[in-house]
Amino acid sequence: MKDAKLINWAELPSELIYSILHRLSVPDRLGNARNVCRSWRRVCQDPLMWRKIEMSNMGEYKEAKDYYHAAEAMCRRAVDLSQGGLLEINIEYVGTDSLLAYLADRSSNLKQLVLTECNGITDVGLLGAVMKLKLLEHLELSYFYFMELDLESIGRSCPLLKTLKLNNVGCYYLEDESDDDALAIAKTMPGLHHLQLIGNMLTDTGVNAIVENCPHLKSLDLRDCGYINLAPR
């Protein structure tokens, strides 16, 4: 071990530093990592480092005081660092209408938006943000049980949308079968390649409308859709 060479972290190739930092969480990149040395700080402030933001799998931080406020502040800081180059963002639990508006105003190039159980986001807030994201290709919403989506407006605002995943969205708002979502999708989202409607209230009529009007569809996930009965007659 006498001949072992100490590693100078500041002299690592930039490509390796990028690779290391991309494996760290957003809090770690905004905190300890940027304080290692000047070269790491420089990479942490590079907009290329923030083309994808993962505000998920942050269980170890949830016990912290004012977790939700701190997490939203971190997300805003990461959006700022992207300098308009943000392409993908995944937010779990901490999303609010104000955060979504902040994101939409500064990330017009966004292609993928994934939101999971963000109780601070309303249907009005979501629509207002999505209408500004004209390049959006992937929209995924999970566990917004009472959200009433205006899918027709979303479809018209996002002509490039290729993937739509709605996991238990609005399923408690509607108490009976409804093809409103399916018909809105069929009417305004002909470019879809992947569609997931878990727990939706659509019927055979809605399924047929989607299949007939979305010719590029490669996958259709209809788990827990209890009003569908496609058995041959």
From TrEMBL:
For the F-box domain, which residue ranges apply? 6-53
For this entry, the protein name equals F-box domain-containing protein
Sections of the chain in a coiled coil: none
Q: Name one GO molecular function term.
A: SCF ubiquitin ligase complex binding
**Entry-linked PANTHER family:** F-BOX DOMAIN CONTAINING PROTEIN, EXPRESSED, F-BOX DOMAIN-CONTAINING PROTEIN
InterPro entries to which the protein is assigned, alphabetical: F-box-like_dom_sf, F-box_dom, LRR_dom_sf
The protein's organism comes out as: Brassica campestris (Field mustard)
